[in-house]
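Researcher: Structure for this, please.
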Amino acid sequence: YLIDATAAPVCMIAPISSWAAAVSGIVDESVMSGTELFVRAIPWNYYSLFTLVFVVGLSLMQFDYGPMKLHEMNARLNGDLFTSGERRSDEADIVTSPKGRVVDLVLPVLVLIACCVTGMLYVGGFFSGTSFAAAFAGTDASVGLPWGTLIALVFTVIYYICRGLLSFKEAMECTTKGFIAMVPPIIILTLAVSLKTMINSLGADVYVHDLMFAASMSLYSMLPAVIFVVACILAFASGTSWGTFGILIPIVTAVFPADSNLLIIGISACCAGAVCGDHCSPISDTTIMASAGAQCEHLNHVTTQLPYAVTVAIVSFVGFIVAGFVQNVFVTWAVGIVLLLGALFLIRAIERKKAA
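Model: Predicted structure, token format:
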């Protein structure tokens, strides 16, 4: 969830309700609730946690590698943000205001997050006496999120007009242009959903179920790492982390005892692998929306982020191997962070040698 938050602020919110739906009726509530299992699994979600370390380390070391290096150097040396010539045809029509400040960007985003959270809580019955956790678990994101987005849109238009950044006519023109700009991503999303439905119709869930149970007979302590890889492949092929949860979580809860640490590690491996595969997939909704929001060519976005994601995924895979045998979160954190920083130093040395 931490990774795909770059696509849209609401992506940090919606998976909570999806998680609750996925584990409903699966987890033994007499041992722990689905929400408790989710919270206890967070420290073991190596892909998301190691990615944060990776981002900080890469920023401090100040280097790039893979296709991103080409785009970065072209932007720095030539001032060209469109290495592959994907410049938008309507870029010349964009009007800027000298009155604009950072708060004019940050405030609408904060209002969007607040409205979406409030909308989901309202739909879940929070304001009718339902508890916070139960409201999130029982909400319908397809109702709450659109209402939150619509309210945030109205607020943004009014705010910009009052600030004198846009006239009413310009605000309405920008709104229609925004809808038009979303047509290509919506088409890609429609085709991606069609592909995901076809994969499910072919029996991907049955195949993965049989594969996991066959592996559990001989690779018990290695299962978290196996689950991570299977989740990566499944999410990459289908373009959805939520669908991967729905397929793998019932299998994971059936393989491991309800009071076992390996159950928590296995659930974490499922979450981490699903987010990793979804992050890398060119047909993922969050990947498509990220490239659309950044106004960059979609395949450029996929190819530039892929080497970084794969680097963290390899370290996370090793971390889940260690976790399966050691079952100590601090030991696996230490091993993973050392490996990740070591990989960064090695890659930087290789890039410097190439440059020399």
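Researcher: Any notable elements?
Model: Confidence is low (pLDDT under 50) at residues 1-21. The CA atoms of residues 35 and 133 lie 8 Å apart.
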